[in-house]
Design a protein that fits this description.
- The complex is a heterodimer of chains A (about 425) and B (about 300).
- Chain A is α/β, with parallel strands linked by helices and about 425 residues long.
- In chain A, about 50% of the residues lie in helices and about 15% in strands.
- Chain A folds into two domains: about 170 residues, Periplasmic binding protein-like II (D-Maltodextrin-Binding Protein, domain 2, 3-Layer(aba) Sandwich); about 190 residues, Periplasmic binding protein-like II (D-Maltodextrin-Binding Protein, domain 2).
- A five-stranded mixed sheet of chain A has the order 2-1-3-12-6.
- In chain A, helix 10 packs across helix 11, helix 10 crosses helix 19 and helix 19 packs antiparallel against helix 20.
- The longest helix of chain A has 17 residues.
- By secondary structure, chain B is an all-alpha fold.
- Chain B folds into two domains: about 40 residues, no CATH class; about 230 residues, MetI-like fold, CATH 1.10.3720.
- Chain B contains 15 helices and two strands.
- Classes of the chains: A alpha/beta (about 425), B mainly alpha (about 300).
- At the A-B interface, helix 4, helix 5 and helix 19 of A face loops of B.
- Chain A: Pfam families: SBP_bac_1.
- Chain A: Its main location: periplasm.
- Chain A: Belongs to the bacterial solute-binding protein 1 family.
- Chain A: Keywords: Signal.
Chain lengths: ~425, ~300
């Protein structure tokens, strides 16, 4: 009987040429009923990618009636609360780490630890398991992630005779030379606050390390602690140099891009999604390059930010079998290779066996995250810290970047918020 | 319509009349009012009651709420962000009233008959027609520190760059200025219609008594514009208290929360991307409601007085 099932499954997978072998083995019974999928991938390219992927899944399960709803990415962040409890879809996109916590704690996400015990997923997705784990259980699967790091104007660096910095001292001396040439070292737009969170993540990961950063996120270390003050002191060195573009509090991250395109600023600490608009604005791969944020404390291991986007099953889902099949399908080697290639999402696959599209930045990012981030991989400030702490924190970080002298006041305020958030 | 009935000439005997017939006069108005009352209860009174109730709970909108009594209010008392929002609301209330005298001046200026005056009037009214979001965007670009018109203009006089929306002390005033633009147009149109109703005989009489210029305006014109002033006052106060969209577009409450008002702060705490504090948000809403209630009570009272006077 088992053998027969496997054979049927193998035949099915061979006939469609799309599904992975393990996938077919575990799911040979045809799926029926309705599968409701909610997506936040509202930008044109990700939307097309997702719809094509769901189309391929549908082709494998002709008896399954799939309905897809795409919601604007920002509106989704507030709507998810309503639809998870009121009219739950079977599958929904979201973000990893602490961003899941409110829904996990409220019992709105399905525990999918069983999926993570299947060898196919356990082996290939090991690197992201931590980000999907709360209370020792897994609450969803990732489908894509991307690296953060410093994107810089190679032509400006060459003109000034600079090379990618390998130490904090070099980063500062490079910056001084860039400033002397009448440019700013880093562009940034902090109007929507989170970009300042990226800088803090890196300053703290390099000053105090991954463990410390996660303890701070969990409320085990006070903001007024000397170690955190040291992070801010390092950051302040750059601020006092005038390394960041002026008036950054007025700009969004997109509005900060022209400074780099026009050559008024030499670099941008950003996620890989900044590459596409920079290329569209006319920068070629000869002008644009990437380096890993250098070490500040040389004894600490590199640790990086790599935000992960995820799929979850709603606890109130009606068709959990089909939803589990869909999650398996999304993380399968073939689909991971397909949806993350440059023509689609242009990001990194979460499946270790998947292949990466031949793109300079994806290759560098993948090499960095897989072999040069021994300290750990953080999600991002607003995904690692609880929502309320993140909101207050980022506001304080922006204030610090504009008025570094207010630091004491800011840290005291954050401690007060922390007292309430972590109680 | 096909045949006429012969009217019943016998008075109906009191015992046989239906309940409705007997109480028709008393009941009918309530029947007509019933839909409005139901909707008002359901969409206005009930949510207000709910806001009050939620404000006594700590609730993330997902899991079960826990009763915390007055804890949310106690926390509001030493929340510096709340204090900033309250102050900003006050600034909005006071400065937004500038729309009334400026609107009056423009209305007086436009209240003449020259060729094309309709065109001029509509041009002045134009800002009120544009969506607040567009007004916000236009002013954001106007204030932009690198390419904005304001700083280009200041540059001609050798003045230093001002980053209006990035400066925590200036930003709120910058947004209020943007809000005044359409609000002034609104007040202007109210006064223009009011000026149509000014009694020419009184002006004539005043002129015979030697009144002109400012005295004519103060003693003859403005008293007759009282109804228009009242409406202008009402819409401006309400406009100031609902100042949400401009803030959201122009600064998103920043820099570091210095341009928030109560309505924006409530939204941030309860409903925004990181907002999971329904109880706290409700407490802010209650405070905002109480402030509005003062004005609403005043408006109702003055309207009631007006009606009694006639």
């Amino acid at each position: 009987m088992n053998l027969k099932k496997t054979l049927v499954g193998a035949a099915l997978s061979a006939s469609t040429l799309l599904s992975g072998a393990a996938y077919a083995e575990s799911h040979s019974e045809p799926l029926t009923g309705e599968l409701k999928i909610f997506l936040d991938t509202s930008n044109p390219a990700p939307r097309a990618t997702m719809e094509a992927m769901i189309g391929r899944f549908g082709a494998l399960h002709p008896d399954l009636e799939i309905s897809t709803t795409v919601i604007d990415r920002d509106a989704y962040k507030t709507q998810i609360r309503n639809f998870l409890s009121a009219d739950a879809p079977d599958v929904a996109t979201w973000y990893a780490a602490n961003r899941m916590a409110p829904y996990v704690n409220a019992g709105l996400f399905e525990d999918v630890s069983d999926l993570w015990e299947e060898p196919e997923i356990a082996e290939n997705l090991a690197s992201t398991k931590g980000a999907m784990t709360i209370d020792g259980k897994q609450w969803g699967v990732p489908y894509t992630y991307y690296q953060w790091g410093v994107y810089y104007r190679k032509d400006i660096y060459e003109e000034l005779g600079l090379s990618e910095p390998t130490s904090w001292e070099e980063m500062k001396s490079n910056c001084q030379k860039i400033l002397d040439s009448g440019r700013k070292c880093y562009t940034i737009g902090t109007k929507f606050l989170w970009t300042a969170g990226g800088w803090f993540d890196y300053m703290n990961l390099r000053t105090n390390g991954f463990e410390h950063h996660m303890k701070l996120a969990a409320g085990e270390i006070k903001w007024t602690d000397d170690s955190v003050r040291q992070t801010f002191a390092n950051w302040r060195e750059l601020i006092d140099m005038g390394a960041f573009v002026d008036n950054h509090q007025t700009y969004s991250w997109q509005e900060a891009l022209p400074f780099m395109v026009k050559g008024e600023a030499a670099a941008y600490l950003m996620g890989n999604f900044a590459v596409a608009p920079l290329r569209e604005a006319g920068l070629t791969d000869d002008q644009l390059d990437f380096y890993q944020f250098p070490k500040i404390d040389p004894d600490l291991d590199f640790a990086e930010d790599a935000p992960t986007d995820t799929f979850h099953i709603a606890a109130n889902a009606k068709n959990k079998d089909a939803a589990r099949a869909f999650l398996r399908f999304v993380v399968s080697t073939e689909e991971q290779t397909e949806i993350n290639n440059a023509a689609n999402l242009g990001q990194l696959p979460v499946n270790a066996s998947a292949s990466i599209d031949d793109d300079k930045f994806l290759n560098e990012g993948f090499a960095m995250l897989s072999s040069n981030s021994p300290g750990g991989v953080a999600q991002f400030f607003d995904r690692d810290f609880p929502a309320e702490m993140a909101a207050e924190g980022m506001q304080g970080l922006q204030e610090f970047m504009v008025f570094p002298d207010n630091l004491d006041d800011i840290l005291n305020r954050l401690d007060k918020v922390a007292e309430r958030v972590y109680k | 319509m096909t045949y006429a009935t012969v009217p019943d000439r016998h008075p109906p005997s009191p015992g046989r009349r239906g309940w409705y017939k007997r109480n028709e006069i008393a009941v009918t108005p309530w029947l007509f009012l019933a839909p409005a009352i139901l909707f008002f209860l359901f969409y206005v009174i009930f949510p207000i009651y709910q806001s009050f109730t939620v404000s006594f709970y700590s609730w993330d909108g997902l899991s079960d709420p826990t009763y915390v009594g007055l804890e949310n209010y106690r926390e509001l008392m030493d929340d510096s962000a709340f204090e900033v929002s309250l102050w900003n609301n006050f600034k909005w209330l006071v400065l937004y009233l500038l729309a009334i005298p400026v609107g009056l001046m423009i209305a007086l200026f436009l209240n003449q008959t020259v060729t094309g005056i309709r065109l001029y009037k509509s041009l002045f009214f134009f800002p009120f027609v544009i969506s607040q979001v567009v007004v916000g965007l236009v002013f954001t670009w106007f204030y932009d520190p690198t390419f904005g018109l304001l700083n280009t203009f200041l540059g001609w006089f050798g003045l230093p760059t001002v980053n209006v929306l990035g400066d925590p002390t200036l930003a709120t005033y910058g947004i209020i200025a943007a809000g005044l633009w359409p609000q002034t147009a609104y007040c202007m149109i109210l006064y223009l219609t009011g000026l149509n109703a000014v009694d020419p005989e009184q002006i004539e009489a005043g002129r015979l008594d030697g009144a002109k210029g400012a005295r004519m305006l103060w003693y003859i014109i403005i008293p007759q514009l009282k109804p228009a002033t009242f409406i202008a006052f009402v819409v401006t106060i309400i406009g100031a208290l609902r100042s949400f969209d401009l803030i959201s577009i122009m600064t998103n409450g920043g820099p570091f929360g210095q341009t928030r008002v109560l309505s924006f702060y409530m939204f941030e705490k309860a409903l925004s991307e990181y907002g999971f504090r329904m109880g706290y948000g409700a407490a802010i809403a209650v405070v905002l409601f109480l402030i509005m209630l003062c004005f609403i009570a005043y408006f109702l009272w003055s309207m009631w007085k007006e009606e009694k006077g006639h």
